[in-house]
Amino acid sequence: MRRLFFALSCLVGCSDEAPPAPPADIAFGERGSLVSPEGKGSFRFGAASAATQIEDQNENTDWWIFTAPEDQGGLGKGKAFVGDASKGYEKALEDVALLRELGLDSYRFSIEWARVEPARDMIDEAALDHYGAFIDALIAAGIEPVITLHHFANPIWVADPRDPECMMGVSDLNLCGLGHPQGGPEIVAEAAELAQLLAEHFGDRVDVWGTVNEPVNYLLAAYGVGTFPPGRTLILAEDTLLGGFVPVVRDYLRFHAAMYQAIRQYDTADADGDGRPADIGLTLNVGSFVPSRDNAVSSEPADVAARDRVVALYHHMFIETLRQGRFDSDLDGAADEDLPEVAGTIDWLGVQYYFRAGVTADPGLVPVLALTPCFGTFDFGSCVPPVNADFTKCVPSMRYEYYEPGVYEVLKDFAARWADLPLFVSESGIATEVGRRRAEHVVRSLEQIARARDEGVDVRGYFHWSLFDNFEWAEGFDPRFGLYHVDYATYARTATEGAHALSDIAHTRGISGTQRTDLGGTGPMTAEPAFVAGEHCSE
Ligand code: BGC
Hints:
35% of the residues lie in helices and 15% in strands. It has 539 residues and is α/β, with parallel strands linked by helices. β6 and β7 (296-297) form a beta hairpin. α7 (183-202) packs parallel to α9 (238-266), α12 (435-454) packs parallel to α13 (497-508) and α12 packs across α14 (513-519). It is globular and about 80 Å long. The protein starts with a helix and ends in a 7-residue tail after the last helix. Beta-D-glucopyranose (BGC) binds next to loops.
């Protein structure tokens, strides 16, 4: 009958090709170790968050001071005051039920340094107890904790954003931030003490540790362009780039390595029975960078070289330094300085993929690197045509293009470059108010991860960003990344269509062909009604 219909329809002009076969089911395999060699071929489904973005009343963080209104003693920076965020501290134990409901087996979250050590060398035991109880609740629910130690926030005493230039000098109240000749090494030593404290307290229950989150993004935002505390702007001129920003990067490499060594030394308990007490890595921001010119993909050698410069700095530099113990101190793409204290301090790498961006060899925006990227609203003819144009123009999206195939490209590159480095996708998500769009993003991202796995890349997991809506740093509360929607009047959490899609996948450990037909692929996504109506759009 179907054949007859097909034959008849061809009479009115179609070719005699068979209709495309529906996509096949994808199976991700069993839950296994994220890092150890025995876990090869296994897969984890998780969600991720960060303390400052979800926890209420984190008043000893630099973000509190940075975003609090001036009449409350703050600096009034960013789009919103972090305040109660998503009440994730008060509701921590209740929120475990959300993870269970989704059928997730892992949760990546951070411990707020400023809560644990609100003043220098003063440890808050109640905060440690809180995190201990949370870890116990996760484990009781069959969910493995993956802990980040440093996710974009500090206690105020590490780098007080009210005195970013350190006019008052270094003291226990302000170590004056990374890169400061006296304060920098003290901060590195403090990072080691923090890691020791957490390893001693939680090492019996935790095996997978992440030291720093998105080092390149963090350093650029906090010390490069000043959109994060402490608010320094060191990359805007060549002398401060090399004389100010490079020492910041060097300190952060040491900060990571000091944490790595402390956890290695003080977490000696094998919590999950895989014979390894601690697997210590970090999570890295990545993108899909495309050579561009006149708002089109370019094959000009100069644009390709400009793209390669971005990829070398954004994707490779930090990891190569940790693997080789050699640092590129003039950012020219070649390592020129020995940094033996950081060598060999990475056991796994978390990939955090969100966007696609064009890069053109016009020195306009970043003269030091002789290039101009297309990012968010910075469209200077360097963009490539997006699949969903509304994303790049309208809030509450992040105004960059979500382009799911990019995660495949990055996984392939990393597996070829660092064959021995275990990989998992430690963040992937989308800012949207349309549940179906989030569901499409989940399915499409996992399809791209499966494609990489089919081609031999041993990627062990997918952690969706984020479990529920939260404080999106300098962007405030407009972008909604949550699998669960948060009502900021009541703090109620409600599952979005994205949560239902991920839940189906996690429970069956696979994506059905039907779900792929409905939500998968690479074409345009479901439209965002507010965008169609032209609301919140820049044109
Ligand atoms: C960060 C998160 C952030 C997310 C979405 C990542 O850069 O690790 O803290 O909320 O992306 O922008």
